[in-house]
Amino acid sequence: MEIGVFGSYVRGEQRVDSDIDILVEFEKGYKTFDNYMELKFFLEEILTSKIDLVIKTAIRDEIKQNILSEVIYA
Questions:
Q1: What does each C-alpha distance from 27 to 15, 34, 35, 67, 73 come to in angstroms?
Q2: Alpha helices per DSSP H over the chain
Q3: Catalytic: which of 21, 34, 52, 61?
Q4: What does the alpha-carbon distance between residue 63 and residue 43 come to, in Å, rounded to a whole number?
Q5: Catalytic residue among 19, 34, 52, 61
Q6: What is the domain extent for residue 45?
Q7: Which end of the chain has fewer CB atoms within 10 angstroms, the N or the C?
Q8: CATH number of the domain encompassing residue 37
C-alpha cells in the first residue's frame, strides 16, 4: 500500500475544521469497499480528525496533477 497526505495540511493552510486529505493506492486485489472504509475509520480514530480518503486511481484528470505535485508519502 502507498499512502500520503496532500491538500491544506501539506500547504500549511489547514483550519480547525479542515479534514485531512489522504491519498492511497491499495495493492492489487486489496482495493475493496471494506478495506477502504476500514482504513478511513482507522485513520479518523488515530488522527482524531475527519479524513478525505482518495484512491489514487480514481482521481479526476482535471485535478490529478495538482494532487500528485504536492502529495507527501509516508
A1: 32, 14, 11, 20, 15
A2: 8-11, 33-47, 61-70
A3: 21
A4: 23
A5: 19
A6: 2-73
A7: C
A8: 3.30.460.10
Give the chain's domain count: 1
Q: What is the pLDDT of residue 31?
A: 86
Q: Which residues are CB-neighbours of 52 under 8 A, at least 6 positions away?
A: 7, 19, 20, 21, 22
Catalytic-residue membership of 19: yes
Kindly report, residue by residue over 13-57, the tens digit of the pLDDT: 999 999 999 999 999 988 899 999 999 999 999 999 999 999 999
21 is catalytic: yes
| Residues contacting 50, CB < 8 A, separation 6+ | 19, 20, 44
